[in-house]
Structure formats: C-alpha cells, structure tokens
Design goal:
- The complex is a heterodimer of chains A (about 220) and B (about 210).
- Chain A is flat.
- In chain A, strand 6 (about 195-205) and strand 7 (about 210) form a beta hairpin.
- Chain A is α+β, with helices and mostly antiparallel strands and about 220 residues long.
- The longest helix of chain A is centred in the N-terminal third of the chain and has 19 residues, at about 1-20.
- Helices cover about 35% and strands about 20% of the residues of chain A.
- Chain A has helices at about 1-20, 35-40, 45-55, 60-75, 95-115, 130, and strands at about 140, 145-150, 155-165, 170-175, 180-185, 195-205, 210, 215-220.
- By secondary structure, chain B is mainly alpha-helical.
- Chain B is about 60% helix and about 10% strand.
- In chain B, a hairpin with a 6-residue loop joins strand 2 (about 20-25) and strand 3.
- The termini of chain B are far apart.
- The chains are: A alpha+beta (about 220), B mainly alpha (about 210).
- Chains A and B meet through helix 1, helix 2, helix 3, helix 4 and strand 3 of A and helix 1, helix 3, helix 4, helix 5 and helix 6 of B.
C-alpha cells in the first residue's frame, strides 16, 4: 500500500517536472500582467479571478513559469474555505446566484456598450534594441535632446519621468499632449557626453487606463 | 549616490517614515508633481534591500543584469508618490513584489525577442534532478522532456474545466491545501478533482504511448 503511494508520488513528481520542462513560447497578448499573477498567487484576487488566471497558466507555459517563480516568493494562502453541511443550507442562498446572474448580465451589457480601449504597450520609435533599458542605448545631443515614443489614440496624455542612472530626478512631467519631449539644455547642466538618461512614459488613455513603457536609456553625445 | 544628492537638497525635509525608511518630499524640477525619495541612509538601505530582492528573484542567466534591474525597480518604487500610494509601507514583501514584476517584465521582453537562454527555455534548471527518468542534461533529453511536456499540455486541455484547474495547480507544485485555497473550493472537492484529473491525465498520456 505504502509502496503504491510512493510510486504514485514519484509519478506525480515526474509529471510536474515534465510540465515545468515544456518549451516556453513568447508571452501572448492576453497574458496576465506580472502583478496580476502575483496577486493571484498570494490570494489577493477574488476566487473567480484566481481561477481565470489558473485557467490561463494551464495553457500558457510562459505564465506557468512566471507563476512558479511567484509561488516561491509570495505568501501562498493555505486555508481552504469551509462550507456549511448541506442540511444547514438556507433557502435565501438561491437568491445569491440569481442576483449574481442579473448583475453579470448588466455588467456584460454595459461592457459591450463601451468602446474598446487599446492596450498596446507604449513603444519607443527607434528600434527596440536601441531603446531598451538593457540593450544598446539610443543617443541624443545635449543641446537638442528630443525623446520620442509611440503615440496613443486621440485624447491620450503622457507622463514622463527622466532620471540619471543613480536616480537623480531630472524631470517629471504630467499631462503631456504630444508623444515627445524636448529636454531643455538647462536640465542637463553638469552632464557630459556619454552621460546616460533613464526615462519612462505612462500613457494615460482617454478612459483613464494607464499603460507604462519599459525604462529607456538615452546617451548624451 | 545620486539619490542622496537629490534628497540632501536644502528644500527637502523628512516628512514621514515609510516602511522603516526616512522619506523626503522633493519638488521635481518642473514643479508638476511631488516625488517621494528616501533620504540619505534610508536611500542606501532601500537600494540595498531592493538589490537583495532582485538578486533573490533573478534567475541565474539574468544575474549580470541585477544592477540594471535594481535601477528599474527603484524607479517603480519612486512612482508610488504620484499614484497616491504614499502611505503604502515599503515592506520586505512589497519590495519582493516590485522585484518580481521587474524581473518578469525583463524575462518576458527577452522571450518576445527570443533572447532567452537554452537553460531557461527548456526549464532544465527546474526539472534537473527530478525530471522524467534521468535529469535532462543533454539536448536530446531536453527535446524529449519538451515533447512530453507538450503532450501533458495537450492532455490537460482535454480535461474538464474543474479537473484541469486542480491538476494544473498540482503540477505547479502546490499542496492540496494551497490548491483548495487558491481555487476557492473545499479541500475535499479539490482532492477529488486532483485524483480524478490525474487519472484522466495518465490515461490520456498512456494512449499517446507515454507512461510516467
């Protein structure tokens, strides 16, 4: 009996290892954001949302790997819910799913009437290899340094933060209307050729949705 | 460091303690928002804590990026103030979460650009020592492991929804109690779903000629 149990455990471990060894494709557009994965693993999301994330990781190896990493770091809940014995169920409990169904219908109807909101991440206009935080940096002249990024839909505003690599804040701008910013030379006082700017853009869409860019590097010439 | 310089400016003042760090309110150069930065020693402590968190989260193949990732994580922490989260404590758990999201964003960026190392992409580091049969240490075994992983994924997709969820968490290494709590089900129900789901999974794999 115990040898059967041990065999079953070994089989289960092998299945887990093989599942973890699956080839990881690139992340998909519908992958949950890392903070959503973290919230799901640590039990901060509602149960329905957690199940939706688990449903996703069942078919997405990339997110399954990210989930495992979060599970090693986040406090995973371990208290299973307790339900009342069936004989003690209250008749009004039937009303809860009914109200939930009505609420869901209203929510779906309201959602369908909303115009779709784009979720395309903010991208730097130059090739990614030049604008990425860890790739080859882009360059600009200290006297005419213009930072540009991909424009969002009409009505989009932008927040821009510029710092040095040692995190000295050079500029924080809210509510920019155009997808570019010309850095005034006086803000670059004391910076020499070869100095690096780190900058990041938040795109605030008309409906208030915020999409953040990666942190970009630009080297002064 | 620069953070010290920024915080040490004469107009700055320590206005509160947050998560054990002294925090400065610093007017930004264009006076459009306030940026919260920890002051002096607080800055260094925060940076060191964040660097430790990033190091803990970082997979070995990203170890040479720890400094860059720590900078990115610091910038994320700095964004707290404009978002109105100034009272959120910078606890160790919070810093770990910031480190996690920063590192995963970088991993995803590399996966999109196909820059991920062989070790990460095949999951060999996770599977080593308890994979199918011998540890997958050569390309042939890695390819075989991938193939089996793909077949498991295919069989998982054929399970009923509730069994698939329970078995997925089981394969991810969660205990029964954790799986039950994460799915919002009772332990008894979850245990049944895992048991029946694994049986279905083995049957499906056996039909494909794979017997774990």
């Amino acid at each position: 009996m115990s040898s059967n149990h041990a065999q079953g455990t070994r089989d289960s471990d092998r299945l887990s290892a093989a599942f973890a060894a699956s080839e990881r494709a690139a992340p998909r557009a519908d992958c949950p954001q890392p903070d959503e994965l973290w919230a799901a693993v640590s039990g901060e999301l509602a149960a329905g949302s957690r199940r939706a994330v688990v449903r996703h990781i069942a078919e997405c190896r990339s997110c399954a790997a990210d989930w495992r990493l979060a599970a090693q770091l986040a406090p995973v809940p371990s208290a299973a819910p307790v339900t009342a014995p069936s004989g003690q169920r209250k008749p009004w409990r039937l009303a809860v799913p009914a109200f939930a169904l009505v609420f869901a219908c209203v929510a779906v109807f309201a959602h369908l009437r909303r115009p779709p909101s784009p979720t395309v991440p903010v991208a730097y206009r130059t090739p990614a290899s030049q604008g990425s935080p860890h790739g080859q940096p882009a360059r600009c002249a200290a006297v005419d340094c213009v930072l540009r990024w991909t424009a969002g839909p009409r009505g989009t505003r932008y927040r821009l933060r510029i710092t040095t690599p040692d995190l000295r804040v050079l500029a924080v701008l809210d509510d920019l209307e155009s997808p570019q910013y010309s850095v005034p030379p006086e803000q670059l006082t004391g910076m020499t050729a070869g100095s690096v700017l780190l900058w990041q853009v938040d795109r605030v869409d008309a409906d208030g949705q915020v999409v953040s860019s990666a942190t970009f590097k630009t080297t002064l010439e | 460091m620069g953070g010290n310089r920024a915080c040490a400016a004469s107009e700055n003042a320590v206005d509160k303690k947050r998560g054990g760090y002294d925090v400065c309110s610093m007017a930004n150069p264009l006076d459009t928002a306030m940026v919260a930065l920890p002051c002096d020693a607080g800055y260094e402590t925060l940076r060191q804590d964040l660097a430790r968190a990033v190091t803990r989260v970082c997979p070995p193949w990203l170890a040479d990026q720890v400094d860059d990732l720590t900078h990115v994580a610091m910038m994320r922490v700095m964004k707290l103030a404009p978002r109105g989260d100034r009272d959120r404590a910078l606890s160790r758990g919070y810093l770990t979460k910031v480190a996690y999201t920063t590192v995963v964003d970088e991993i995803r960026r590399r996966r999109r650009r196909r820059e991920v190392s062989l070790e990460d992409n095949c999951g060999a580091s996770e599977a080593r020592g308890h994979g199918f049969g011998a540890p997958p240490i050569d390309p042939e075994q890695i390819a075989s492991g991938r193939e089996i992983g793909a077949q498991i994924g295919d069989c998982l997709a054929r399970l009923s929804d509730s069994r698939r969820l329970a078995v997925t968490l089981h394969l991810q290494g969660h205990t029964l109690r954790q799986s039950a709590a994460l799915l919002g089900w009772t332990a008894k129900r979850t245990e049944n779903l895992i048991y029946r789901g694994l049986a279905d999974l083995r049957k499906c794999l056996a039909a494909k000629g794979i017997s774990p």
